[in-house]
Amino acid sequence: MVKFFKILLITFIFLTNFNLLAYSEDPKIRVGLLVPMTGENKSLGQQLIKSTRIALKDIGSNKLELYPKDSGSDANQSLRSASELKDMGIKIIIGPVFYESLTYLDKIEDVIFISFTNKTKNIPNNVISSGINATSQLNTIKKFIKSNEINKTIFLTPKVGYEIEIKDAIKKSKLNIFKHYIYDTEPTKLTAQIEKITNYKIRKQNLLDEIERVENSDLPDKEMQLKKLEKKYTIGNVKFDSVIISDFDQSLKSVITSLLYTDVSPKDKYIISFNQWFDKSILEETSIQPIFYPSINKKNLEDFEIKYYKEFKEQPSYLALLNYDLVGLIYYLTIKNGLTDIEKLFKKETSFKGKIGIFDIENNKINHRLNFYKIDNGKIKKIF
């Protein structure tokens, strides 16, 4: 089945010069779009269909035809819809959205699926994972750590079934980790684990011992020293200078809050998270800032959101922008390489520059070269 070779860099900007590639004698390019059109995620599916319309409009060619089919909410429905698309003669399918929908797709021979999932472990050989995967994020984080001469980094991963993926990404990125901890997301257990990781009880006892020592002393500045100690929460340093947290949303906030409780402040240690997609709720939580994280091109995302809202009067999911890029990718590759041999279609030694940013295709996954951001005082600043 399809294997993907390491990609070398050339720059191609999607949806800018596509018109130059269109020739009237070319056949139609028929592509499937396998997205949820029923069930609880149908609104997401509709957004992906709408972003396809924007991409086709920007391409400005009638040579690309996309055929949406309902992936539903389970792997069986995805298999049925994928079979229908294959029966139509379609050999390239964008989707499904979710990892769980990939289970039976290896039964569909001679078809390539470009899924939105960011998971890369145990996916069928005919599926390309296009989401912002952990390796892409850690490669970007590694660049930041190196440039800031950070020496001891601990890694915190929630116990939510993503641990193997994270460990594999750490290995592939060759990121030097001092210690890797798997934590329980239940609040009481989480706090107890963070206390242990940060040696909180020992550092707290150090403070109490020092207060007692000063109180029992005859020091001339005894009162001044006691006032200084009253402002402290602990005495003693932790054995790391940065923390990477592979978590999101409220769970991420809980971890950072637990670190603050144990007197580990983002103002003293680098707190680095995984991609937060410019989450506005984190912007409002100034007490847990600064936070650093990798993500996509923010300016391009904002421009796309404006374009999408102008067209459909609603805010799009970030997956809508990823879909926009995938439509452009397929159009470019099929025009350049023809429609007859999908085995060669994604073997081109090329890097691509889409709206999300530059990305490479390698070993059944898309690796993204991400930007790096800092949130501080309620504002987002691009680091690189």
What does the model show?
This protein has three domains: 18-131 and 298-368, Rossmann fold, CATH 3.40.50.2300; 135-198 and 238-295, Rossmann fold (3-Layer(aba) Sandwich); 208-235, no CATH class. Helix content is 39%, strand content 18%. It is built from twelve helices and 15 strands. A five-stranded parallel β-sheet has the order 2-1-3-4-5. Strands 7-6-8-9 form a four-stranded parallel β-sheet, covered by helices on one side. The protein has a three-stranded antiparallel β-sheet with strand order 10-14-15, with helices on one face. Helix 1 crosses helix 11, helix 5 packs across helix 8 and helix 6 (200-215) packs antiparallel against helix 7. The model is unreliable at 1-25 (pLDDT under 50).
Helices, strands, pairings?
Elements: E1 29-35, H1 42-59, E2 64-70, H2 75-87, E3 92-94, E4 112-115, E5 127-129, H3 134-147, E6 153-158, H4 163-173, E7 179-183, H5 187-197, H6 200-215, H7 222-230, E8 242-245, H8 249-261, E9 270-273, H9 280-284, E10 291-295, H10 298-312, H11 318-337, H12 342-345, E11 351-353, E12 358-362, E13 365-369, E14 371-376, E15 379-382
Parallel strand pairs: 1-2, 1-3, 3-4, 4-5, 6-7, 6-8, 8-9
Antiparallel strand pairs: 10-14, 11-12, 12-13, 14-15
- CATH-level-2 architecture of the largest domain: 3-Layer(aba) Sandwich
Largest sheet strand order? 2-1-3-4-5
Indicate the proportion of strand residues. 15-25%
Q: Please, how many domains?
A: 3
Q: Which structural class is indicated by helix and strand composition?
A: alpha/beta
